[in-house]
């Protein structure tokens, strides 16, 4: 909206039964993470769409709807037996469940799993599952977190691209957009 002055007419599309997903594409004019993108969508829904979308619809645009659109719903987008188990858990706010996710900040991410493996979250939770002690501590907006950067990328490492620690990743990207 700020870049082009307009955006997709999402309320009309959803009324027509068109499945709409929410994602992020670049940090130059957009958001650096899905929580921020969800807040932008919520703001747009409030200021331009007269709250045409429910909190649940906004949330589903980042989960089930996105998986349906990309034809990956047999593996991701919902919690179920045989699914990959890419999950995120958030600290519940005083509001209802879907609104809690929309209002969540980076410090409210309690745990993130990829492929059923914990890769990030509150330090005590990640620490309880970190049998190899390879996850590193990180202060996220005053909340101590642990991130398993090395083990997350280890399975994808090749001879030309070795697994990197959080410190190595931060040093290599010091001049770019900050994490928080």
What's the topology here?
Elements: H1 10-15, H2 34-47, H3 55-60, H4 64-69, E1 87-90, H5 97-103, E2 109-114, E3 117-122, H6 123-129, E4 136-140, E5 143-147, H7 149-154, H8 166-172
Antiparallel strand pairs: 1-2, 2-3, 3-5, 4-5
Task: Name some characteristics of this structure.
5-stranded antiparallel β-sheet, 5 strands, 180 residues
Structure in words:
This protein starts with 9 loop residues before the first helix and ends in an 8-residue tail after the last helix. The protein is built from 8 helices and 5 strands. A hairpin with a 2-residue loop joins β2 (109-114) and β3 (117-122). Strands 1-2-3-5-4 form a 5-stranded antiparallel beta sheet. It is 33% helix and 14% strand. It is an alpha+beta fold.
Which residues form runs of ≥5 with pLDDT under 50? Answer: none
Number of helices: 8
Determine the strand fraction and express it as a percent band.
Answer: 5-15%
* SSE topology string: HHHHEHEEHEEHH
Which structural class do you get from the secondary structure elements?
alpha+beta
Helix content: 25-40%
Main sheet properties: 5 strands, antiparallel
Shape: globular
Q: Determine Rg (CA atoms, Å).
A: 18 Å
Termini gap: 23 Å
Report the mean per-residue pLDDT as an integer: 87
Let me know the number of strands. 5
With strands numbered from the N-terminus, the spatial order across the biggest sheet is 1-2-3-5-4
């Amino acid at each position: 909206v700020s870049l082009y002055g307009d955006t997709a007419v999402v309320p009309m599309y959803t009324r027509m039964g068109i499945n709409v997903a929410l994602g992020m594409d670049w940090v130059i004019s957009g958001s650096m993470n899905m929580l921020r993108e969800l807040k932008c969508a919520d703001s747009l829904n409030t200021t331009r769409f007269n709250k045409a979308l429910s909190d649940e619809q906004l949330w589903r645009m980042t989960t089930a709807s996105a998986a349906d659109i990309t034809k990956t719903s047999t593996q991701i987008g919902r919690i179920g037996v045989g699914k990959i188990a890419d999950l995120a858990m958030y600290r519940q706010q005083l509001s209802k469940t879907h609104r809690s996710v929309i209002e969540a900040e980076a410090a409210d991410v309690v745990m993130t799993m990829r492929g059923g493996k914990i890769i990030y979250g509150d330090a005590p939770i990640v620490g309880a599952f970190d049998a190899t002690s390879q996850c590193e501590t990180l202060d996220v907006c005053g909340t101590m977190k642990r991130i398993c950067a090395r083990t997350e990328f280890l399975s994808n490492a090749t001879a030309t691209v070795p697994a990197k620690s959080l410190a190595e990743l931060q040093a290599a990207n010091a001049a770019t957009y900050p994490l928080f």
